[in-house]
Amino acid sequence: YNTKDKDFMQMIFSEDALIITGKVIQPAKFKSEVQISPAKVELVTKTKKQYLTKLFQAFDNRNNYINVEFTDYEILRHGAKPNYYFVTLVQNWHSSIYSDTGNLSLVWDFTDDDNPKIQVRAWTPISAGALGVNDIKLP
Asked: Which of 43, 86, 115, 120 has its CA 20 to 30 A from that of 29?
């Protein structure tokens, strides 16, 4: 993300990857003393093309810096399918126009060691917890 490497991003995701992103829905602001509930997050399923189109728009914005950090890694190898790995981590996304912190769950397919692919990329808010290995069913 930080290097804005479009070719790498095209290569790393499977063509039929399941990609789930979060869309923050901000509550309306009122001038009275009405209590406002906190922002809500809507999870959105995207295709690889939809996800990369939006990501590349952020890459192409000349005034936009992107700094993404990943922490708290957990990696599990699938018992029945040893070429698949389930990874959870915390993603801290910072750019000139947007920042958030959330859980990222990934399913990596290492069937081709020279060309691993992300089959699932699912972002969830910290408050919701990360998707677990039992939440994603492999074919």
From this structure: 43
pLDDT one-digit tens code per residue, 54-76: 999 989 987 778 999 999 999 99
pTM confidence score: 0.84
Q: For residue range 90-136, list pLDDT tens digits in order.
A: 999 998 888 889 999 999 999 999 999 999 999 998 888 888 888 88
Give ∠ CA 91-114-93 in degrees, rounded to 5: 10
Question: Is 66 in contact with 55 (CB distance < 8 Å)?
Answer: no
